[in-house]
Design goal:
This protein is 8% helix and 42% strand. It is mostly beta strands and 106 residues long.
């Protein structure tokens, strides 16, 4: 269990995927550019087996915006997109309505 105070430390935002490339050193990873309002950042996501690049561009996703940066197989990741998984398949979490990128999730 985590406290509500710990949960409030998460900065969850809506981000729009603006570019997707296959990771040069990992078959399961994408290098994804996202837009959060006026800000842009790069994230790495292990979703290649579930989504094509064309399916991802333009999608609005839920992003953990304040995750500590990590280098994953030589590429920097500055956040994490959220997915639901049943063990075999996964689905990216997306807003129900059209909302601007950068919007805060509360």
């Amino acid at each position: 269990m985590i406290s509500f105070e710990d949960f409030k430390k998460l900065d969850l935002r809506i981000a729009e995927i603006i570019d997707v490339k296959e990771h040069p050193d990992a078959d399961k990873l994408y290098v994804i550019q996202v837009k959060l309002g006026e800000e842009s950042k790069q994230i790495i996501a292990g979703i290649r087996a579930h989504y094509s690049t064309d399916e991802l561009i333009g999608k609005k996703i839920v992003l953990v915006n304040n995750l500590e940066p990590a280098t994953i197989r030589g590429e920097e990741s500055n956040g994490m997109l959220l997915v639901a998984s049943d063990g075999d398949d996964l689905a990216i979490l997306m807003p129900e309505k059209d909302i601007p990128s950068g919007a805060q999730i509360r």
